[in-house]
Specification:
single chain, mainly alpha, elongated
Length: 256
């Protein structure tokens, strides 16, 4: 008969281990009291296990069949899993928005016991958030044809991402071509977006030191050379830490 507990469940494995230990001793001729003394168990425990031909007979009537608060959301979890959403944290956040009152652990356990390993629907897997981010941040001319087509499909199904991609590309063009005079216009457009709070906060932070940002995106000079020397000196300090004195460190800095 099929086991109500899957392989790997800690209570199921403990019961199976006890059953496997007790029955060979009884088959070898040991009395039930002797087995109880040898294994440090009560006589009632030995009697219960001796009556069970298989470990699965010990599972009936246990807590695994009780109703839980997750039961009402299991059909939704099964459906989302079949749709290709295998991120357990995202599944938990989705049912939490629907009113699920418990924590992440119960959803993780249900997915691990019942959904993990089930066949996924045939078809291409939807791109990850990291992949879409990389496509948006990459110049369109530098994107391979396959990535460009996938990004086009993603943007066609999400107006918010379409608006975000336009803002990101206009900002990148402004930075690459030192068009700092257009920064105020870009900040006004980004701040006006209501569906992109992260972009709006980024634009508002630029206003805190607006003159410096405009100068950095307008003038051809920058502190890249100085920052490179500082980074090199810090690297040498980390390499020399605890190995030699100041004189050798000074020579390495001067000779590098």
């Amino acid at each position: 008969m099929p086991s109500p507990w899957p392989t790997g469940h800690r209570f199921a494995e403990r019961t199976r281990a006890k059953h496997t230990t007790i029955h060979p001793l009884l088959a070898a001729g040991h009395s039930k009291r002797s087995v109880a003394r040898q294994l440090g168990m009560t006589l009632n425990t030995i009697l219960r296990f001796s009556r069970a031909t298989t470990p699965e007979e010990m599972f009936t009537g246990q807590w695994q069949n009780r109703a839980t608060r997750l039961d009402a959301y299991k059909p939704y979890l099964d459906q989302r899993w079949q749709e290709g959403c295998t991120n357990v944290w995202k599944l938990w956040e989705e049912i939490k928005e629907q009113g699920y009152p418990r924590g992440y652990a119960s959803v993780r356990d249900y997915v691990s016991r019942n959904l993990r390993g089930k066949p996924q629907p045939v078809g291409p897997r939807p791109p990850s958030a990291r992949a879409v981010t990389r496509w948006i941040l990459t110049h369109p001319d530098a994107l391979p044809e396959g990535d460009r087509l996938q990004l086009k499909d993603v943007l066609a199904n999400c107006p918010e991402l379409t608006a975000l991609a336009e803002h990101v590309r206009s900002f990148g063009h402004m930075v690459a071509h030192l068009q700092g005079d257009q920064l105020l216009t870009w900040i006004e457009a980004a701040t006006a977006t209501t569906d992109l709070p992260s972009l709006r906060h980024f634009a508002q932070h630029l206003e805190r030191d607006l003159d410096a940002v405009i100068a950095g995106r307008t003038l051809p000079w920058n502190s890249g050379v100085v920052e490179g020397h500082v980074n090199r000196i810090k690297m040498l300090k980390r390499q020399m830490f605890g190995r030699a004195g100041f004189e050798l460190l000074r020579k390495r800095v001067l000779l590098a």
